[in-house]
Amino acid sequence: FSLAVFCILMVYIALKSIVIEKTIGFPEKMEAAEIMKKCLSILYNEVNNEKISIDIDPFQTGLIFDDRDSPMITYGGQTLESKQTVLKPNFAALIVDLFIKIDLTIGDTIAVGMTGSFPGANIALLSACKAMGIVPIIITSVGGSEWGAIDSNFTWLDLEKSLFDSRVISHRSKAVSLGGYSDMFDKNPENGYGGPEGKRLAERAIKRNGIKRIVNDKKERVSDREGIYKKNINDQLLANYSAFVNIGGGVGSIGIKGKTTYGWGILDINKVAADERDYNMSGIIKEFAKNNVHLINIQQINKLIKDDDGRELIKYGVNRNAPEVTGEGLLFYSEV
């Protein structure tokens, strides 16, 4: 009996000894999440995507597109849960967390490669940049994977312009490529995605948004990006960027898919720099690695959202019984 009482007493003392503390960057994480909420609200009214059911888009963002016959799709086999996860405002806080881990601070300039695959992740990054005072130099490719920004009237360029014009974000793309197979929206011989109709619609989106078109030849997909990034940084040196962030699977950014994969989250610079694929096959990310620039890869969302102990910082997909609340969870608080 005495031993039982002693054990209960020790458990009580241990529980009372736990201190809950805000994580590093708590104010910036909260601000980024709130900015993302504003972005989603603006785009919800702009897109008015009534065809999507609440089962597919439980947060009613309007930014999950379910037209699996869209000619704008450049890659298939993407999970709906990943698209749902990156549309949570807490995902902007996750981006802040990654930025803090590589010591980004106010005034830093980062290079960014975006696609139409993860509009939620794109919004999260722009929200994090605004909250932290970071300057993103963005190059976008128009095409997107399933569930992404694949409505020809609401490509990522259109969504980005709406947010920029509303002044809720401070930066937009400096240049844009078509995306898709070879970064030219050609028909993919392996899966049939892409082709002339998608290419025509992508070109129309570029024209109406007034963004500089790059990559008129597949051999230029890396060199054109390198030129834009150099033009927009001090002394035209890639080494002067504080980080390169890739979102999605753009071939000009991370290279041709194959046996070589870099992983997710904060990448090993040396591993990427040692990639033996040539200039065009490996993408612009290798050029940043060779210049010892920090690398972040926003892919494999189910793994990206976990910490080093395997705990989810954001719930993957949707759990209606335990909806996430901004400002709660391991991203915002830790036990010490």
Uncertain stretches of 5 or more adjacent residues: none
Strand order of the largest sheet: 7-6-4-3-8-10-9
Q: Got a strand count?
A: 11
Backbone CA Rg: 21 Å
Percent in helix? 25-40%
Q: Helix-strand pattern, N to C?
A: HEHEHHEHEEHEHEHEHEHHHEHE
Name the shape in a single word: globular
Quick gist of this model?
The chain is built from 13 helices and 11 strands. The protein has helices spanning 2-17, 26-47, 80-86, 90-101, 119-132, 156-165, 196-209, 223-231, 251-254, 269-273, 279-282, 284-290, 301-304; strands spanning 20-22, 73-75, 109-114, 135-141, 144-145, 175-177, 212-213, 243-247, 265-266, 294-298, 333-335.
Can you offer a commentary on this structure?
The chain is an alpha/beta fold and 336 residues long. The protein is built from 13 helices and eleven strands. Helix 2 crosses helix 4 (90-101), helix 2 packs across helix 5 (119-132) and helix 4 packs across helix 5. The longest helix is centred in the first third of the chain and has 22 residues, at 26-47.
